[in-house]
Design goal:
- By secondary structure, this protein is α/β, with parallel strands linked by helices.
- The chain has helices spanning 14-26, 41-54, 68-79, 103-108, 110-113, 115-126, 184-187, 191-205, 213-229; strands at residues 7-9, 30-33, 58-60, 85-91, 129-137, 141-148, 153-159, 168-175, 178-183.
- The strands form two sheets. It has a six-stranded mixed sheet. Strands 1-2-3 form a three-stranded parallel sheet, with helices on both faces.
- A hairpin with a 4-residue loop joins strand 6 (141-148) and strand 7.
- The model has no long low-confidence stretch (mean pLDDT 96).
């Protein structure tokens, strides 16, 4: 496979990805990575180091960030008054029924599965996350309190154990002038994945992507800190 391709796309559990992607990077192959990029920060850093040492390009499939409504939301936030707070939620039933009832998701819960989407978007809107506190049941419902660089704060709620229809996935950001919000459940469609491929082509050609493996490492650090707070890390 490595001899016949320029890039490798992964759709495997994070622990498997973290090992195979290192092999692919050392073989000189560019990487399209699933989230989370690994199960631990140490594994994520090893992957990032391998990619850097090999000089290969990387891109992480944080699907919300490739959708036009999400990009419009972030542009609205950037153009408005500085936000001071935010709130995010991803409430779904993937652990109860359907194609997402996979062993690694059932074992590790919503924080590692749904958390990367919500934390990443709050981080992009409000500033880099510098501290996190967590509470709840790591396999059923997790609540996060995030502190951002610059002083903003946000809250996130995550579960894959409710059959609420439609699933709730959204982010809100508050400034003195009002609120900016995006419904990611309704706003992320098939066209986002066309954008993924188009941007991967440019990434492989040499244009650095903001959602690279180092973005994955940062998110992994936040998730690991939350897991330790929950007594699960």
């Amino acid at each position: 496979l490595f001899d016949r391709c320029a890039a490798v796309s992964f759709a495997v559990p994070p622990a498997v990805q973290a090992e195979l992607a290192v092999d692919a990077a050392r073989a000189g192959k560019h990487l399209l990575l699933e989230k989370p990029v690994a199960l631990t920060t140490d594994a994520a850093r090893r992957l990032a180091d391998a990619a850097d040492e090999a000089g290969v390009r990387t891109q992480v499939l944080l699907s919300w960030r490739y959708a036009a409504p999400v990009r419009d939301f972030l542009a609205q936030v950037a153009a408005g008054d500085p936000p001071f707070a935010g709130r995010g939620a991803f409430l779904a039933g993937g652990a109860l029924l359907g194609p997402f009832t996979t062993p690694w998701r059932l074992e590790h819960g919503p924080l590692l599965d749904l958390g990367p989407h919500v934390v990443d978007l709050l981080d992009a809107a409000l500033g880099r996350v510098v501290d996190v506190r967590a509470h709840g049941d790591p396999r059923r419902w997790v609540g996060l309190l995030l502190e951002h660089e610059g002083g903003a704060v946000s809250e996130a709620s995550l579960t894959a154990h409710t059959m609420v229809q439609p699933p709730q996935a959204r982010v809100e950001v508050y400034a003195e002038s009002g609120v900016a919000e995006v419904d990611t459940g309704a706003g992320v469609g098939p066209e986002a994945f066309t954008t993924v491929v188009d941007e991967l082509v440019r990434t492989v050609a040499g244009t650095p992507h903001p959602l690279d493996v180092h973005r994955g490492v940062h998110l992994q650090q936040v998730l690991d800190a939350a897991l330790r707070d929950l007594g699960a890390g």
